[in-house]
Amino acid sequence: MTEPVAGRIPQVAGELIATRRVGAYQHMTFVAPGIAELARPGQFVAFAVGGQTSANLLRRCFSIHRVSPSGTYGGTVEVVVAAKGPGTQWLAALRPHDGVDIVGPLGRAFPLPKEPVPCVLVGGGYGSAPLFWLATQLRERGCPVEMVLGAASEDRLFGVVEARRSAGAVTVTTDDGSVGTRGWVSDVLPEVIRRSGSAVVYGCGPMGMLESITRVAGAEGAVAQVAVEESMACGIGVCMTCVMPVTGNDGVTRMVRSCVEGPIFRGDRIRWESFESGWGRVPADAVGAPARGGH
Questions:
Q1: Which of 58, 118, 131, 260 could pair with 198 in a Cys bridge, judged by C-beta atoms 3.0 to 4.6 Å apart?
Q2: What pLDDT is attached to residue 54?
């Protein structure tokens, strides 16, 4: 049954129909009618986690890997889970036919170019999950697509085989050199942008990686569109745990909710320096920033 959340976002009683281990992650497919039909690449879903006697107050949010609006069981949503804390461990341990409450699709989708321009898609770890669906839509618009996938080690990469089906070329990096080029995605990205002539760089992964690809894209004359995922809780803009400083078209910096105004932002609009000492420190020149040195 579907119910409205925050006025219009579906909340459904989902059912897990498939789950499998992929390297360090769990790839999970849920029946989620009403969500699958509305979702677009870059949006995410929020799961209620825990059983009847162990439920967590806050949901866990995951980028949508792929959707199937129709199928044997109805519309399905696929996510990739890294089991780290109690909430994600509970979710990853679900078995087929287990139920879970799902809200989505949430957030803003990746903007798509109006013209068929070359694009590079960069994923860090399981942050690559939403990029394959994005690649499909870009190629349907005539955009040549290359992908760069990076992780600390081979088991923390996600989707290398799928990337080779989704993109014209794939470059892989690992911090430890266990597969592909030893180093970071930012080490190989300049050459990939130049070779492909890409005008847009899409990224999803850790904040440090997103900052580095924004810097590289700018230096190479490309625009970075990045998906931020850290510190989301409710997913609908109520809890305010995911606020971050972003500069608007008017040049004014405001603290915005990454789950509502994002999770996709132009990389050059994010005030990256505010993350050096933690999540989303308020810059002194942001609207509503505390007065410094006043009474």
A1: 118
A2: 52
DSSP-based three-state secondary structure for 65: coil
Provide the whole-model pTM.
0.88
Q: List all residues 6 or more positions away from 294 whose beta carbon is below 8 Å from its beta carbon.
A: none
**282 or 25: whose pLDDT is higher?**
25
Alpha helix locations (H) across the chain?
86-92, 131-140, 160-166, 185-196, 207-219
* 123 φ/ψ angles, rounded to the nearest 5 degrees: -125, 140
> Which residue carries 């409205």 as its tokens?
4
CA-wise closest residue to 222 among 182, 190, 269: 190
Q: What is the pLDDT of residue 244?
A: 85
User: Which residue segments constitute the domains of the chain, with CATH numbers given?
Assistant: 2-106 (2.40.30.10), 119-275 (3.40.50.80)
- Angle between the 185-196 and 207-219 helix axes, to the nearest 10 degrees? 30
Closest CA to 187 of 203, 205, 174: 174
Contact (Cβ atoms closer than 8 angstroms) between residue 53 and residue 46? no
Of 240, 190, 233, residue with least CA distance to 214: 190
Higher per-residue confidence, 58 vs 187: 187
φ, ψ dihedrals at 133, nearest 5°: -65, -40
The C-alpha atoms of residue 202 and residue 134 are separated, in whole angstroms, by: 9
Structure tokens at 284: 């002194």
DSSP 220-251: TT-EEEEE--TT--SSSSSS-TTEEEEE-TTS
